[in-house]
């Protein structure tokens, strides 16, 4: 059993920022990395909306700098994944997949989110064989080929623009006429010659054979007309879902969508357990917001520990 004052579960912007505030307040602080060290941001190339960077910077580099900053300050990173948390008594007991147990006086849950799926049978069949949820990871395989991106948020637009740099043609397929993505990004995307918007269209099926994806069939939501688009790859960017499965039966209150319910001070329903970042909301999925809420959660955890002494 390892003991700590503050345990941040997750090594993305929320967990790491929480750790910076925790350790600088004089409390022993551990960050659990989970399967994706650095979180979602490491998948983005050109980030230009994080304050403090004049020129675009890769998400990987931002997270690398944050991790080095944490380490310099004395934060301890552990390559462990949480599978269960006992919340009935303090200190809380966290169980890791490896069997390790951690006793923590205060916990900040910052497990983020991961890519949602379309949920159609053919998506499952071709996942990893032409269907992907990460253009930054797999886009390179589509050099001089055709690719489709599904979705209407910032991530979908960003991935479509990214693919245009090496694909001969990219289709951005979206169910609505309007985008959730920032207008400036959509306007930039509209100006790209090899990017075609296919709007008011839902994916019916992804088609292919043993060698991979060959086409995608979409249905126009207004006219009901089907259209086949020849493509070599399909990138699904239809949102995210919180990675909170391990909290089932923990007593931590979740929404019907699995997001952690917090008040405006990042408190969960269990005293001493706080939550921050994308696992607490589906609306403001941005690194700066995750980092800000991580700082808030740590300040609340520190107040809790100061009172608990
Ligand atoms: C392709 C892409 C591009 C993006 N571009 C931008 C951008 O330009 N600007 C911007 O501001 N935002 C961008 N975002 C959004 C941004 O990355 C997220 O809002 C932000 O990373 C959320 O931070 P987080 O710390 O809440 O969660 P995450 O970054 O999701 O980190 C979650 C962490 O929790 C860990 N974890 C999960 N489950 C467990 C478990 N059971 N035990 C232990 N650890 C666990 C994971 O391994 C990970 O380390 C982008 C996202 C994507 C996917």
Number of helices: 7
How many extended strands?
17
Oligomer: single chain
Bound molecules: flavin-adenine dinucleotide
- The parts where pLDDT drops under 50 for at least 5 residues are none
The CATH H-level superfamily of the largest domain is FAD/NAD(P)-binding domain
CATH class of the largest domain: Alpha Beta
CATH architecture of the largest domain: 3-Layer(bba) Sandwich
Q: Strand count, sense and closure of the main sheet?
A: 7 strands, mixed
Percentage of residues assigned to helices: 25-40%
Briefly note the CATH topology name of the largest domain.
FAD/NAD(P)-binding domain
Q: How would you describe the overall organization of this protein?
A:
With 309 residues, this protein is α/β, with parallel strands linked by helices. The chain folds into two domains: 183 residues, FAD/NAD(P)-binding domain (3-Layer(bba) Sandwich); 116 residues, FAD/NAD(P)-binding domain, CATH 3.50.50. The protein has seven helices and 17 strands. 41% of the residues are buried. The model has no long low-confidence stretch (mean pLDDT 95). Bound molecules: flavin-adenine dinucleotide (FAD). The site of flavin-adenine dinucleotide has 39 residues, from helix 1, helix 5 and helix 7.
Task: Give the structure's gist in a few sentences.
25% of the residues lie in helices and 28% in strands.
